[in-house]
Amino acid sequence: MKRKSLILFTVLAVAISSCSKPVEKDYKDASLSIDERVEALLPKLSLEEKVAQMRIFHANIGTKPDENGNLKLSEKVIEKLKLGIAGIKNPGEHIDAVAAAKLNNELQKYIIENNRWGIPALFVTESYNGVDAEGCTKFGRSITSAASFNPELVRRQWDVVGREARLRGMHMCHSPEADIVRDPRFGRMSEAFGEDTYLTTQMVKNAIIGVQGDYEGLGNGTHIGAVAKHFAGYGQVLGGSNFAAIEISPRTLIDEIYPPFEAAVKEAKTLGIMASHGDINGVASHGNPELLTGVLRDQWGFEGYVVSDSNDIARLFYFMNVAESPEAAAQMGLEAGIDIDLYAEDSYAYLPEMVKNNPDLEKLIDRSVRRVLRTKFILGLFDNPYIDIEDVKKGVRAESSLELAKESDLESIIMLKNENNALPLSKEKSTKVALLGPLLKDDTKAMFELVSGSNIKFIAEKGFNLTNEKGGAPELMERDPKAIAKLVNAAKGADVSILFLGGDKFTSKEAYFSNSTLGDRATIDPVGPQDELVEKIKALGKPVIVVLKHRRTLSINTIAAEADAILDTWDLSEFGDESVAKIIFGELSPSGKSPVTIPRSIGQLPYHYSMKEINYKKEYLFLGKGPLYPFGHGLSYTDFEYSDITISNGEITPDTELEVSVKITNNGSIKAKEVVQMYIKDEIGSVTRPDKELKGFEKIELDAGESKTVIFKITPKMLEFTGITMEKVLEPGDYTVKVGTSSQDYLETTFKLKK
Fold it and tell me: Is the whole-model pTM more than 0.85?
């Protein structure tokens, strides 16, 4: 009897124990929440497998198609993929979209089948002129689209980027740049959205929403995740020299540099953030926990992953000299909050061995791996890792995408000058036009002929190159008198000359870590004999139109003085010259506005419109007053009249809002678009304040003779700044509202803040 009772007790105990044991969740179960799936998978991984989820390598080390288009892996890559991988940069970038999708499907299948837990990889691209890969729609650069002052247009453009990238089998994009760029010596200027905090914030936010498909496109498999970069202050490198130190006052950092990143996190829900190459006031960004954890996560609530820039964790040791050893650099990056090591073999690769001596590091490793796995689950890669090839054929370079590239161009072209209505040119009048200069492309003449009609005859002559077009460290070409003479002779035989001037991709580019690869400049004058060319052709006494192409702001003094009209185009899409022709021949009016201040001289730098008011007290000897062209400047073929500025109340409190309105009338004879801009000036502050700050803009379209009243809301939030105690303050006092067509041409009204 006792034996039976004992057996019964044992059975009951086992049964109770079995019932009380929690059921193990399956990370492959799509019905679970993302966090549940992450927590179900993470404990299964060995330490080495975890660290593999914290590393990205570049496809160029051995991930490519063979002669038949099938996946071919190097031994190095095969070894790396045994444990899985966080991601691979740019697989299939040099083949067309269909071939890339096929290759990436094969690559993903190999990765899933050759690591123990079937963890997919993130395939990562970038976007400078659309998806940075072969066979995608080529848009204008970010600073070009910023000139449109049309955030909705930017959102649609980046929606195409997100769709086309996902169709190639990509999942993340190391773009857009949320940096503020104010030094045109910096070779990467055109990758960002300009000098202004508010404009950049609106553009970055909309770019991320677009590329991520309003976040819903991530899990639906239609879009990719954004990685906003470079956090923070990267555009402020001293001397405009890549990798140089960054000195920014804490107040400027908070009020002017952080806001685009904060909006990327809080409003656009970016999946990723990339840390800055540089330091901030002596603290290397890749080893800065106050920045990458304190500000980014604790203050802003960022939940995505932080990725290093290329090799930058290791550089804490061998370049920044703030770590004692490669291992110390790895620990510094990990503790600061870097989740993924981009490219390096001498950084996070050391972590498994380091944990043996410091087991507490595994908690930080787990923290980072959670973020990486979470991203992969958000993107739906565990459930739907492959691309439908038939969708690729229909979706990449769709007609609607190509038309959008043209639309973006047309809204981004800035007319800086139009003396005596030199533009537009008439299609009806028989005219001989000379297309001349070093920025002329092989298909420029053909693109102009598509637009101009039969009455216009063209001569096309490039004349000379600006550089020898060597990628690493290009050299300027020697002045060629014969080439210049040939261009002048061509202009003699024409009724009007259109000069394509400025700079090309060799005169403004990223300066890589290697000393043999340069991209920054010590001057911002147009290189080569471009000024001479303008002067000699202008001396012929015929109209001269300049089409300015460039990737950095240039001090175009001679061009501004001599040209009858100037179209500033920055770096347009693949249809750029066709779009320029449409503007020149009056198919529509230009409506772009300059996203930067255009200085007379490099000696004026720093020189952005929102500098402190005291910066404008004195001018320089022997130099004209002010900039060549102010921020927000851009002319039209019509005349917009601003009138009747009114404000809803003369006072605002911390709990109320105001509205300011202005009437805009199109007094011309054609329909046109105008960017109405609102600036606010804090007349007296406890710290020195900006001369003015852009706080709103709206792009409108008016028929000939039409009027519209534009209304802007003024909120207390717009008036906040970092005060003398380094806390955000809202100070009572007088404010001036300036609403107009640029940062220097506006109507004014005033109000008081009362507390």
Answer: yes
